[in-house]
Amino acid sequence: SQRVAEGLVTLIETANAPIFGIDTQGKVNEWNATASRLLGFSKDETLGKDFVTTFIAPEFQQSVNEVKSLALMGKDTANFEIAFVTKAGTRREVLINATTRRGPNDEVTGVIGVGQDITQIREITREQERVADDLSRLIDTANAPIFGVDCNGLVTEWNRKSAEMVGYTKAETIGKKFVENFIQPENRKSVSEVLQKALAGEETANYELPLLSKFGERYAVLLNATTRRDGVGKIIGVVGVGQDITTLNRLMAEAKRVADDLTRLIETANAPIFGVDTQGRVTEWNQKLAELSAFSKKETLGQPLVANFITPEYHGPVSFVLLKALHGEETASFELPLVKNGEQKAVLLLNATTRRGPEGEVIGVICVGQDITQINAMTAEQQRVADDLSRVIDTANAPIFGVDVNGMVTEWNRKAVSILGYTKGETIGKNLVDTFIQPEDRKSVSDVLSKALAGKETANYELPLLSKHGERFTILLNATTRRDAKGNITGVVGVGQDITELKKVMAESKRVADDLTRLIETANAPIFGIDV
Asked: b/e string for 1-22 if b means 16 or more Cβ within 10 A?
């Protein structure tokens, strides 16, 4: 018995878990080495001290007394969480099993507590909760439509942008079948396949999702369907993050229409037009040129232009013009004679223009005859549409910035860099209002940030910004409160949308309307109007 008791004492003292013991009066009579390392109190400093009032955080003292009383009545408690105050004044959170301690005659002699330090686990958990909370707010306030479904295809996520775009509130969608309720019948099969793939772990990027709004408007959303998993990796649903490409699709359709129009125009133009590739072989030969040269399109395509269709004395000059164009140096108004069977069929005054592929690489030369006014206009329009389309794609991401409680910049994304010209390195740690906001707007911006720092978020605030190069921008901003793991406000995150051009158009429309109103009102002629 003595040997067993000594072994038990040694086990308690050397255990990796903190172990505490109290007598029936609540005084400490056990305090092992791990408890000393964890809390900073030596065994001598604890023995005989009141366990609850000396070592337990005030807000836990009542519940610890209740557990102690139960154990002294013979009722054990498992997995009870308490907070200790260390010798250094910090807090340590410990998960305790409180067990009744008995004497040789089975009488209750006290309580023994075996613990597990969960301080770090709790910090990690709180940080995970903070990250999840930040992510949840970012999803809800993002300018991109975001939705989620569970394994049964029922909606679990529906952010503000989705509600704004499609017209259905979050309450109207949560728990509803996504495909059956919000997808047009003709698209349900393909959408179901994408969701099923994601639920099987196969994610889909850049899927064009057609949506029909509550009010009958059709939208196209470029979607990334991502598998959603729980803490152990089990698939629990799908999250879809989208980009509204409705306007972009219209622009692309318009660009394709312009390109098709240009192709038809080349073919049917009254001006002679031909093209060659980088090897000098014919790739274009329109009807007018076929008429002038007496060579049909079929006879010329794939044939060397200079060797087969140019008189020998012009081989050198024409080859030089084409070579310059293939190196990006274009030539205007050069004379090109065309021959067939030794007979000159036509002399054309042409412009030689470098032809480029979608990546800007040289793929050949296009030559347009003397009357090229309409063709140049169409080519310029096509290039403008292509440039607009490129910019739309380039600027699809929203500007996002963050500030701390002192108004110092903590976040500055690429879109913000591209809009304002300030790199991330130039902004981090600087006061947002004092450095990047015009003096006349600082008070209103400060008010918005102060509200967010007080927990009152602001949606669709027009934020005026001045770029590094003196340009003024207007950003439609959602200012969202940022919190730490304990719920303390640590700053503000702003997710925006550049509406500078929209404001200009609206201002111009108002100016025209005001001018028209004044013109009608002050005209010498009697003017009146009636409705339908």
From this structure: eeeeeeeeeeebeeeebbbbbb
